[in-house]
Amino acid sequence: KYIAKEKTKKKFSVSMQHYTFAVSAFVELVKQFGMDEYEFAVHETKTYDVIDDVKNFRSEIGILYVNDFNQKVLYKLFRDCGLEFHELLRCGIYVYLWKGHPLANQELISLEDLREYPCLSFDQGAHGSFYFAEEVLSTYEYKRIIKANDRATLLNLMIGLNAYTLCSGIICEELNGSDYCAVKLDSNEVMTIGYLARKGTKISRIGQQYLAEISKFRDKGLL
Prior knowledge:
about 25% helix; 4-stranded mixed sheet; alpha/beta; 11 strands; 6 helices; 5-stranded mixed sheet
């Protein structure tokens, strides 16, 4: 029975908020390790699901952000779930919009400048608390806001409606294309992007390499 058993593939899975750079790092990881020995899985999903996936062993690593507003609530949830958060990089806040947007050529954009344009936000489903929002400044009273549940839809809405979203400013044109840009928001807010892992668990070799690939974006997340 055991002698005839075929060699099983090693598995690596990661869950993340909607970050293009985290997907780009995953692509590089797959290229390096190949798919002959490994079975890969990537889950670009809601904030609560990122936490739940790592808690319940569906993913070894979860990629998300904390800031001054949400960290107290999220850190308590991490502890309750037996997880630890580790910082990877810090970023200022940027406005992400398409290059044909009337504000795309400005060096700095204020929230007042954005008032008449639709703000795009990722729908967090049943866990729609401000603390789980993927966009900073989640409690700001936006005049117009549209929720969507995937990145491709948000990109289409940016072009069709001159809409925008708030992000880390780390752009991967090889995945999203060259039709979009990030302009610094006039704000002192900082988001700390890091990874979740189960407390007391050693990160696998492939997991460590994935985190190393993400760390390469540190210099691109300029404050």
